[in-house]
């Protein structure tokens, strides 16, 4: 069978930096090709070449057997190559159908060429039915969940007569049930003859649906695995060039006294539900629960982004007022947000300035920032966190996801934290970077820092936490010590069905 798309010996250089070196990739109609590699391995650059955004510096592309030096964006779209990105590009003020057919809406006859709304919605409904969606094209996009928005994005791809659908981290923000549904949709597309390239750091998903896997490391094509060979240990070994025995943490030493205490705290999301919580020095306290349970809202209230409606926050036994991030930072309470690109970084700023930003007062001399001290601080943090950046003056947007997360951490670690709130700390991060972040969290707890980790990754919650609190609809539904942690115990509490194994 002729591949739908084949790339041979692809090199890509950006000035002195080599992003890809001799990469081969092919994908056939009716197959799911898994594309995996650590952050910075070259996956995004390769996808941009396929999408026509970048031209390869060297190499050959064949599309349906036709040899090309490069693809352009119009040529890629015309060939039926469609992307479903991790960061969705929808318009919340439009309907689902209008998002699907934006710029291509059917019109009625006559000089005004008004949009044919009935046909628009009917065409969208036909695509949504193919995907098993439970909402219609006339639905306002703002009413959809993230998982439903993903389906709308896939429907948009199908509306373009997609023959190759590239899914880039499509499940990173989905629940387990939503992930199952999306993987079923991907499998159905494969069975209908569509080719798919599936990019994810969740290797269990690759194990479930991929027919073949292509693995990149440091910009090079290091392995291809056929279906019988696809297993997480083998993929990890090729991705990082060594065996990774475990990304989980050993048990911590007994925790110290309470460092952060919440008493009767009420947030705007759940004004009738009070939260009581105690975080100890030297422990990693996991905060689990279903999406919408109020975990992120609780962290934002602790950090002062959203003022509490009632209740009290105490730091080392002393009541503190936290009505702004400035007050929280002054108390040594820092937040690593769920969405680092929107809320954790200034993407157009240099890496150095992103690291130094909250501590500029300590770098100022007579009201002016000492640039030499700022650069020295950034270099120290780069070495401490093994931050992989060719030049610290580059925009932070040039870094991989894992290294961007390290920049957020570097910023706070330079300020001697007392409490750090991690909200989905490894979202969109590869297994190697995950292990580094987990080790860093343990190093912080060993120094006596209180670590509160919010995570929807059940394996992460169980493997990293010393103790877990589970939220259900704005309240703490239960507490589990490490010895009692299991998916069943956590999920039972998350859905409001407490288990008998509970500990205060």
Question: Could you describe the 3D structure shown?
Answer:
With 504 residues, this protein is an alpha/beta fold. It folds into 3 domains: 236 residues, Rossmann fold (3-Layer(aba) Sandwich), CATH 3.40.50.300; 166 residues, P-loop containing nucleotide triphosphate hydrolases (Rossmann fold, 3-Layer(aba) Sandwich); 67 residues, no CATH class. Helix content is 32%, strand content 26%. The strands form 5 sheets. It has a 6-stranded mixed sheet, with helices on both faces. Strands 16-19-20-13-21-22 form a 6-stranded mixed sheet, with helices on both faces. A 4-stranded antiparallel sheet has the order 2-1-4-5, with no helix packed on it. Strand 7, helix 6 and strand 8 form a beta-alpha-beta unit. The longest helix has 16 residues. The protein is globular and about 70 Å long. The chain starts with a strand and ends in a 10-residue tail after the last helix.
Record keyword descriptors for this entry:
504 residues; alpha/beta; Rossmann fold; 3 domains; six-stranded mixed sheet; 22 strands; 32% helix; 26% strand; globular; disordered C terminus
